[in-house]
Protein: Transcriptional repressor NrdR
Organism: Asaccharospora irregularis DSM 2635
Amino acid sequence: MQCPYCNDKESKVIDSRHIDSKSIRRRRECESCRKRFTTYEKIETTPVMVIKKDKSRECFDREKIKYGILKSCEKRPVPMEKIENILVHIENEINKGFVEEIETKKIGEMVMEELKSLDEVAYVRFASVYRQFKDINTFVNELKSILIEKGE
């Protein structure tokens, strides 16, 4: 595995943990610069096609979801490990369903559900972009629904 810091190809595994039945998280240390980094191994599965709003299709891209989550969690106290767990959970749910195609709407709902329980501000940020809030009233209504769910 190539070191992301010095590009050396020699590293040793310090710790391995199963994330789920299809993924392993490995902590590595570069033999050259001694910096540590994390890698993930997962079983390659049949690609899932994502049906977009305009009915076009493209291959499922985990990085697109990760980018959206990272943007919504920006400057929030959300550890990368939690974001990675969300990504793994969403991928597992999609693969568990043995689906060949999934709508972006379903993926967006899954992300929002995960963010709602993780960080309410990140949830509202993601929802405002995903649901394309048109005005302040839509935004306020979403905040009210969160408060009602919390019983406040």
Observations:
- The first strand starts at residue 11 and ends at 20.
